[in-house]
Write a structure and sequence with these properties.
globular, 5 helices, four-stranded antiparallel β-sheet, alpha+beta, Muramoyl-pentapeptide Carboxypeptidase, domain 2
C-alpha cells in the first residue's frame, strides 16, 4: 500500500488531482464506449443510472469520512459538494446563500473542456446532472430539493457551465 505519510503536501495534492483526472477520464471513456456501441440516447440513460447510484455512494462516503452530519441540511451539502472528486479539478462556487437555499455554480468543467479540445459539441448533461445532484443532495439530507438554473444544452452565462439551486423547504 502507498505510504501517504511519506509524501509531501505538494505531492499529496498532485496525487489527489491526478486521481480525480483519472477517475473522470474513466467516466468519459466508458460513456464514449457505450455511445459508440449503443447510441447517444442509451449512453445518456446508462450515465444517468450510474450517476444516480454513484452520487449517493460518494455523498455517503464523504459524510462518513469527514464527519459531515447526514440530515444536516444545506451546511452539510455545501461542505460535501466541495469535497467531491471533481471539486479538485473543476472550478466551482456558491453564488448566493440564505437560510433556506444556495446557488451553486460550476465555472469550469473538465468534461466540457475535453470535448471542446476533441472537436466535439458540448455534452448535454442536464438530464444526468439532475439525477446526479438530486441523488447526492438527498444522500446528504433527504429534505433538500434541487433545481437546475441552467446546464448544457442550455446556453450558459459567461464564465459558467452549469448552475444549480438547492433548497431546504
Amino acid at each position: 500500500m502507498l505510504d501517504l505519510s511519506a509524501l509531501s503536501r505538494e505531492d499529496l495534492e498532485r496525487l489527489v488531482r491526478a486521481h480525480a483526472r483519472n477517475w473522470l477520464a474513466h467516466d468519459g471513456l466508458w460513456f464514449l464506449d457505450v455511445e459508440e456501441k449503443h447510441g447517444h440516447e442509451e449512453a445518456v440513460e446508462a450515465d444517468a443510472r450510474v450517476w444516480d447510484r454513484f452520487a449517493a455512494v460518494e455523498a455517503g462516503r464523504l459524510c462518513r469520512e469527514f464527519g459531515i452530519p447526514i440530515g444536516g441540511g444545506l451546511d452539510s451539502l455545501a461542505r460535501a459538494l466541495f469535497l467531491r472528486a471533481y471539486a479538485t479539478i473543476n472550478r466551482q462556487e456558491i453564488l448566493e446563500r440564505s437560510a433556506g437555499r444556495f446557488v451553486f455554480r460550476m465555472n469550469e468543467c473538465r468534461v466540457q473542456e475535453a470535448r471542446k479540445r476533441a472537436g466535439r459539441k458540448p455534452f448535454g448533461c442536464k438530464p444526468v446532472g439532475l439525477v446526479e445532484f438530486r441523488s447526492f443532495a438527498r444522500a446528504v439530507d433527504p429534505r433538500i430539493e434541487v433545481r437546475c438554473v441552467h446546464c448544457p444544452p442550455d446556453d450558459p452565462p459567461p464564465n459558467a457551465i452549469c448552475t444549480w439551486e438547492f433548497r431546504l423547504p
